[in-house]
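Quick one, tokens below. Sequence please?
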């Protein structure tokens, strides 16, 4: 959405390996894009030496939607392997995630959905069900937008304070609450969207694990709300059997080099 700068857009390459991601990132930064794009930060690629013992926060759910059984299992197994390799884990309280997700939604529709409506009018496409929030949104006034920016900055400050106090290098969290979904069934962006609001560096990586219908069954879970119930009710172990499971590793703002280096190490440990 051109002009929407409350939540910064990101360069999110897809690749077969983390080495490809590193090559892409180094190559892009090596071209000094800040000489062509005034929004680019003039920081060259920085080599990172990781501590031998990483301190990682694990977030089992975001307080809104519990991950489906295969994703929850992947979190447990990856955590166990990293602990066995000597790394330290602490529990990360999802207390701030809901506010971050709500900020994301409010900022995306702050123009009353007019930018999206213009594109739909141009192409003749209808509003999709998942775009309902854009179709009914109200165009915020300038003063309302400034207040929203202030809320975002205060949220970023609180999250940073918690991170600094915990002394962690990264967060291990789901990328999405499911390993994958049927077309049109995607319902919750909170696991990634909050880190867009925070402008943090993150990777999504394949764990090497796959869904196993014999163990990844939805038994006795308590939904955290309506969306959580809808997501987990839609989970089909038979349909998902054999498909890969991914997780997300999150680092601080402007720590792209570090999150790539940590992801490379995580993949080596869990291989």
């Amino acid at each position: 959405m051109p002009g929407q700068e409350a939540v910064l857009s990101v360069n999110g390459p897809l690749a077969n390996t983390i080495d490809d991601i590193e090559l892409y990132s180094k190559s892009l930064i090596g071209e000094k894009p800040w000489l062509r794009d005034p929004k680019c930060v003039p920081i060259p690629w920085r080599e990172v030496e990781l501590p031998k013992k990483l301190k990682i926060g694990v977030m089992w759910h975001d307080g809104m939607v519990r991950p489906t059984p295969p994703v929850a299992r992947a979190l447990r197994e990856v955590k166990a392997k990293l602990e066995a390799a000597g790394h330290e884990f602490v529990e990360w309280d999802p207390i701030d995630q809901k506010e971050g997700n709500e900020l994301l939604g409010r900022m995306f529709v702050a123009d009353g959905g007019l930018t999206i409506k213009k594109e739909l009018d141009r192409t003749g496409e209808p509003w999709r069900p998942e775009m309902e929030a854009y179709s009914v949104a109200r165009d915020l006034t300038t003063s309302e937008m400034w207040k929203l920016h202030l809320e975002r900055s205060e949220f970023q400050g609180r999250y940073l304070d918690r991170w600094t106090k915990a002394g962690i290098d990264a967060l291990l969290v789901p990328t999405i609450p499911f390993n994958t979904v049927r077309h049109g069934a995607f319902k919750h962006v909170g696991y990634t969207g909050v880190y867009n609001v925070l402008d943090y560096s993150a990777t999504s990586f394949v764990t090497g694990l796959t869904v196993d219908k014999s163990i990844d069954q939805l038994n006795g879970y308590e939904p955290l709300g309506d969306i959580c119930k809808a997501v987990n009710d839609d989970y089909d172990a038979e349909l998902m059997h054999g498909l890969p499971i991914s997780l997300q590793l999150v680092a601080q703002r402007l720590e792209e080099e570090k999150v790539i280096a940590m992801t490379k190490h995580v993949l080596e440990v869990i291989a």
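The mean pLDDT is 95. The first strand starts at residue 55 and ends at 58.
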